[in-house]
Write the structure tokens for this entry.
Amino acid sequence: MSKQNAPANWAGEDEINLADLWPAIVRHQRLFWGVFGLTVVCGLLYSQLRPTYFSVSSTIEIATLIENNQRIPIESPESVKAKIEMALGPSMQEEAEEYHQQSKLTVAIPRNSNLVFIQNLAEKNSVDMAKKLHRELVSRLTTDHDRMLKQQQVKLQAEMAQANEHLHRLNDERFQLSKKKDLEAKIENAKAALTRMTDPVILDYETKNLEIQLDSEMQKLESLKGQDVLLGQKAVQLETTREMLLRWIDDLKKQTSEPSIYEKMVAEEGPSDSHAFASLLISNDLHLARYRLAELEERLYVQLEVERSALQKAVDENKRSQEHQASIIALQKVNKEKFEIETRLEKAQQIAEISRIEANLAEVDALLERQIALKKLEIDEMQAQLESQLGTRALTMPLRSRTPQGLSSTRIVLIAALVGLILGMLSVWLRSCLTKTTVDRQPSG
């Protein structure tokens, strides 16, 4: 029964118990101290025999250009970093004789700067090789950036040559005259036109011509008014003639309607030769009176009416002519006033046109001066860019760290002691487990 329960008890007793481990350490202290001392000695030997590494670092300032009053790197720091990590660094380390004694280059970029920080680890006896590697790396990067700066300089110099040529054309008097010649000619023509507009001889001629035409039309109107007076007098004469004709007609009608003295005498004395002659005379007078009456009535009712109609027509025509002539005179006055207004307006417009052209000429001069100033400023900026170009350079020579990199000898020995302590305890525990297993497997007496 004890044998069946042994595996269970053994499994429980194999668990690590620090309280029970200390007696085991005391029993197997030679094993513990042997493992501990061996581990410490190995750590001490490693700390003394391991290679000593120092860090070698350099700081590179990338070449810059001035654009828009700001310094712009000729190549972005990220691009420089990629170039060093992927091309320049590996190729140069392969060329180094002691590559196996150096670590890979690490590249860092300080925030918001055009600086590149490179670093690698090198054994103590290959620090000079690492410094040489850094100097060669800076030299190759500087050569590459100088090439880029040279291209930029050639480009800027070509642009400066074009700008200087343009500035020379702007300063050329012939070019300036060609710009202003048309405007000056327009000013001269406008001033000549204004002189003609303000010439008193021309103005007096035009004004007198209009006044003469107005006087002529007014004389025509006065003539029509005179004709109207004559027509009125003629109308009065016709009315007087009508009244006279009416009186004459009344008289003749009375003479032909009442018996004459001769007729009364013939009637009283009876028929005789003298009476027959008197009757003949009377008959002849009546006939003449009736004929005269007919003439007067024809003149009154026909000729006089025709004359009155003609006169009325002439009066109406004269009134229409006067109205027409009055409208012509009014139009002539309007034309005269219009001419005076148009003359003043044209004069004002011409003065405004001269002012506008002179303003355009002044604007051309100002624009030309502005173009010259801007072109000079552009040339100065290009010159400043050429003069302010900074090439790629190492801010510091390759520097070796003051202390070796990695763990110090003291730390290595302490770590070895800690590891030795752990390994010693583990060895004692394993020894105890093996001893207990051997005892349990022996047959009981």
User: Anything to note?
Assistant: DSSP finds ten helices and seven strands in the chain.
